[in-house]
Amino acid sequence: MKKVILAIDGMTCSACSNGLEKYLNKQEGIKQATVNLVMNTASIEYDDKKINLDDLNKFVQKAGFKSLGIYSFEKEQRKSHNEKYKLIAISILGILTLYISMSHMIGLPAIPYLHMVYYPVNYSVCLLLLTTSVLILGWKIIKNGVKNLIHKTPNMDTLVTIGVVASYLYSIYGTIMVIKGYSNFVENLYYESAAIVLFFIEIGKFVENKNKNKTKEALQKLVTITPKNAEIVRDDKEFTVTIDEIQKGDIVICKPGEKIAVDGTVVEGTTHIDESFITGESVPVKREEGSKVIAGSVNYEGTIKYKAEKIGKESTVSEIVRMVQEATNTKAPIAKIADTISSYFVPTIIVLAFLVFAIWLTFTKDFAFSMNIFVSVLVVACPCSLGLATPLAIVIASGQSTKKGILIKSSEALENAHKVKTVVFDKTGTITNGHLSISKIYNYSNENVDEIVKQVASIEKKSEHPIALAIINYANQKNIQLSEVTEFKAIPGYGVYAKIKEDEFYIGNKNLILENGVKIIDEKHETDLAENGSSIVFVAKNNNLIAVIGVKDTIRDNIKDTISKLKNRNIDIVMLTGDNEKTAKYIADEIGIEKVIANVKPKEKAEKIQELKQNGLVLMCGDGINDSVSLVTSDIGVSISNGTDIAIDSASVVLMNNNLDKINDLIYISYKTIRNIKQNLFWAFFYNILMIPIAAGLLNAFNIFLNPMIAAFAMTISSLTVVLNALRLKQIL
What we know:
The protein is of the alpha+beta class. Among the domains are: 2-77, Alpha-Beta Plaits (2-Layer Sandwich), CATH 3.30.70; 227-314, Distorted Sandwich (Calcium-transporting ATPase, cytoplasmic transduction domain A); 404-431 and 556-661, 3-Layer(aba) Sandwich (Rossmann fold), CATH 3.40.50; 433-555, Calcium-transporting ATPase, cytoplasmic domain N. 50% of the residues lie in helices and 20% in strands. The protein has a seven-stranded mixed β-sheet with strand order 14-26-25-24-15-22-23, sandwiched between helices. Helix 12 packs parallel to helix 26 (708-727). It starts with a strand and ends with a helix.
């Protein structure tokens, strides 16, 4: 199976996207297709043994649309200037048509030789030419409307096309009669209706497209965040290359103020780097030898050299773009409801328009009046606002979430997050940092703590034990310079022996100390460290115990505050871990989690998630391979960015800065987004329910009448209302 995202041209409303989606899903070889109206894309999973990319392009064409090939931000075709000029031309021609048609009715001076009464032939032919020009400029709408009708996927353009063409053809008939000498037919010309309807439709489309493009800004910025050039070292020579010329393994130089070109690992130098564009955190982070750097981040101070590891599509930036793109191509359940309604709505309106036309023609015998009703119903019912209601909000919310360091890979996760009843946390690597740190140092000597750390770290520098690494990292953070060590000797199962100058050191467990005749000074300290889950390191110098060091996996920053906020939302919190119950309970008590499920294997974790799901939606947050099954089993799987690849792939949400408090942000974003979508759907439905009866002439007895021009204007205002309401999310989130 392969997955591809195609750029689609020709979609204008939810009926378009829904029709194309249905058509693609019926084709043999396509496992699943999801069409995105806002992004103008189709995400297709297909069997590459049965069909290929050319077949997919043909399927799109047969459905009445055009495939622009594989979608990419870099190659996205921008036609805004052409669309702008086309709109200006249609505006001039449309307004001129309206002035010639209506000026005499409102007391404005008529254009010479084009007066309706005195020069009916000139008047009729001029309107024919002007309206024909408008139809040529708006031909894309008419072409799409006809094609979608032929392919049995009628959409907004189909409604407009039927109405406009009906008015246009009837007016041509009237023009012919005027030329033949029947000047009374000049009263039955509706050219201005056809021209102004297209004029308002084009305005609506232009505004929608302009605002839809704004929703892509966050993603487009990600693509352009990396520099175009970089300085590399090859064969001991430094030279500048384009980013595309960098190869894996190249040593890249980054000077202060420059951006990191590709993902890699620092091999020389120390600096602080701004990674806020990807983590959401404004505080620069320290990067030194062995640290990972991300393409697009800004180097603040020192010059560093780093080894290129992930280039092109493998980079973190490309991966984020891909995942966000896939998220906007998934459909939330609320979006599927709108699509279902739209698929029935358009055919129903077409039938209704013909029915209303027939009824009015039967009772009034007035063909012109009945035609006006027919066109008004078709135009005012266009489901444009309905189609924009959900996808616009989801794309905006996804973009805003990315800015905050929350990568939402599934729009279903975005919709459901605010309904979560239980949040489940893994312990090691999720609640805790996943690596050992010094928790406590008891000093029994006359030396200060930093001096003791200096001596211990100097010796442990020669060890590969994880506890040794914790002590070395502590010394590095304190900028402690290490000493020269001699006679280093590892004692398996116990610890190490070494000398610094003339001083002899034993560093290790309790047995090592006792066997070398060193006395324990305070056993209470040992007990305290053991009870808080610390591993204990005894330090003896010249046969005297000088310190006891506690080392343990530390708890993440702000986790207590995160738990407290979740509880305030009436959400149940559970710790689910494979660690022993005593250690798990100690950490749970420290951060305020009452329910602990410990000593569970990966399969058992998934089973526990299933049990918890009986009480409502479950969000699972984990980081390791052992969490992957649980993440998929839960309703919403959340992984932290330094988790394993399989955990990140299994999750539907990734926290790019490892800040668990972003879960609260996710819930807030979900709540505000769904509220916004419901508002959009309300206005779309309310508008249609209110306007269709008026357009159908039901209030004609009260002299309330809706002609096609006003109907087109009202439809444009409806779509604009939905777009502006969706864009409010940018200020709210």
